[in-house]
Design goal:
The protein is 3% helix and 45% strand. By secondary structure, it is mainly beta. Strand 6 and strand 7 form a beta hairpin. It is globular, with a radius of gyration of 26 Å.
Length: 501
């Protein structure tokens, strides 16, 4: 029996009309009281208040539950470029084109003090303990301030252009900055030393870095630039997490933010859209459309259930957010040989549109179908133009009938059976049975079932887990994922070619 590799693709919670990322049955709310573009939005630590800074020179404080304006703070001259609550929720900091950083008392909303800068201030960030504030200025400097003393502690030089964005690492030991000079920098908070310079360029030309954000565990830094992409960097090494950036926006990116639990990454762009990405995989899950102009700012609520977006259309939108779907478990992949040419156009059959991104292996592509389906295929000249697997018309029609009936498929597999017929199966949510190409129910057995005691082999999954695959004595196909999911027993395939892991 000849054995070659297959695709085993896990499809998670896929249903007709379903949308990942947005909580079902909940409405997107619009807050509309500013008279000009909204440049910055931020939640307080409790998630009950939202602050917004605008080109109309005001800061507004909103009640998140009711959407009412609780306070309008005046004092800045020109655009308010950045707003942020202190970690203890007692202070609100704002930065403006007037070169001033202002502190406001939360509750009374009285202005407490002003930190003067020689040029426009674009961004502010508190240290995790609230003792320090870092500011980004048009004079190319990053400044650290003692909040209690209202004194400058350090002035960090190294950038050669406007500094657009700053962020504190979760442990408070580093500051990240993004600049017009096409770099992001990592700084030591105690010494002010520049630790790493992360260069952003296209065709050898540097592009401005408009936004930076640390992941909640401090391991990654996300940066958004004029190149319309998001880069993810390993903080400890300064290396890119992936060879290819996160692509999906059609214009420069102005804001990135991680959810508090680290599950989501959000981005806002000049293309008037925000995008939700799974932070661990970089998969684009959903594009949030509704604003009429640039999305300048994105911010997650502390509980991760809301995403606030501030736009040049003068409005703020509150988007309900669900936890992201689990990452697809890819057990194997199609070798890109002449034989794989017939595995084409599965997405056409199922009505999906793919996004293409590279994996950690430079010879492979991950094809993301609406953020739901993943196929891994080595990139070689012999690949079909689409690079997708074809399950065959009969299988596709059966799966579509199942979906139309309101079903949910959590897994799919393809193999070659007797008479060289390409077949497929969809694994149902309870993993109590499976659907094959004809729509018939297949059997699921446990690893110790007699049918699983035939020819067997272990393998290491893409996530490092150990899995099992085998063919029983009577030529039935048995597959188990290393995560402990039950074995799927695929019925008789005859004496033809059997594709295994």
């Amino acid at each position: 029996m000849r054995v070659i590799r297959v695709v085993v693709t896990v499809v998670l919670a896929l249903g007709i009309g379903g949308v990942f990322g947005l909580a079902a049955g909940e409405d997107v709310r619009t807050l509309d009281d500013h008279t000009d573009l909204v440049r910055s939005v931020a939640f307080n630590p409790e998630g009950t208040l939202l602050a917004s800074g605008s080109k109309d020179s005001t800061i507004k404080v909103w009640d998140v539950e009711s959407g009412e304006v609780l306070a309008t703070l005046a004092g800045h001259v020109g655009m308010v470029r950045s707003v942020l609550f202190s970690p203890d929720g007692t202070l609100l900091a704002s930065a403006g084109a007037d070169g001033a950083v202002r502190f406001w008392d939360v509750g009374s909303w009285a202005e407490l003090l002003v930190l003067a800068h020689p040029d426009e201030v674009n961004s502010v960030a508190f240290s995790p303990d609230g003792a320090l504030l870092v500011t980004a200025c048009d004079d190319t400097r990053v400044r650290l301030w003692d909040v209690a003393a209202a004194e400058e502690v350090l002035s960090l030089s190294g950038h050669a252009g406007f500094v657009w964005s700053v962020a504190f690492s979760p442990d408070g030991q580093r500051v990240a900055s993004g600049s017009e000079d096409g770099t992001a920098r990592l700084w030591d908070v105690l010494t002010g030393q520049s630790l790493r310079t992360l260069v952003h360029q296209i065709d050898g030309q540097r592009v401005p870095v408009n936004t930076v954000a640390f992941s909640p565990d401090g391991a990654m830094l996300a940066t958004g630039s004029d190149a319309n992409v998001i880069e993810l960097w390993t903080v400890s090494t300064g290396e890119k997490v992936r060879d290819e950036p996160l692509q999906g926006h059609q214009a420069r990116i102005w804001s990135v933010a991680f959810s508090v639990d680290g599950a989501w990454l959000a981005s806002g762009s000049e293309d008037a859209a925000a995008i939700l990405w799974t932070a661990s995989t970089g998969r684009k899950v959903h594009t949030l459309v509704g604003h009429g102009a640039t999305v300048f700012s994105v911010a997650f609520s502390p509980d991760g259930r809301l995403l606030a977006t501030g736009s040049a259309d003068g409005t703020i939108r509150l988007w309900p957010v669900e936890p992201p779907p689990p990452a697809p478990a890819v057990l194997a992949w199609i070798p890109c040989t002449d034989e794989a040419e017939e595995y084409a156009n599965v997405t056409t059959a199922l009505g999906f549109e793919p996004d293409v991104t590279r994996t950690r292996n430079p010879d492979e592509l991950a094809l993301l179908l609406d953020g739901v389906v993943t196929l891994l295929i080595p990139e070689q000249e012999t690949c079909s133009e689409s690079g997708l697997a074809d399950m065959g018309a009969d299988c596709a029609e059966a799966l579509l009938r199942f979906l139309d009936a309101g079903g949910t498929i959590v897994g799919m597999t393809y193999w070659r059976g007797a008479e060289d017929i390409l077949r497929g199966a969809g694994i149902l949510p309870g993993v109590d049975d499976a659907l094959d190409a004809t729509g018939d129910t297949l059997t699921v057995v446990a690893p110790d079932h007699p049918l699983a005691r035939g020819v067997a082999a272990s393998f290491t999954g893409r996530d490092g887990s150990t899995g099992f695959s085998g063919v029983s004595a009577d030529a039935n196909v048995v597959v188990e994922h290393g995560s402990g999911q039950p074995v799927v027993f695929v019925q008789q395939v005859g004496a033809g070619t059997v594709i295994m892991l």
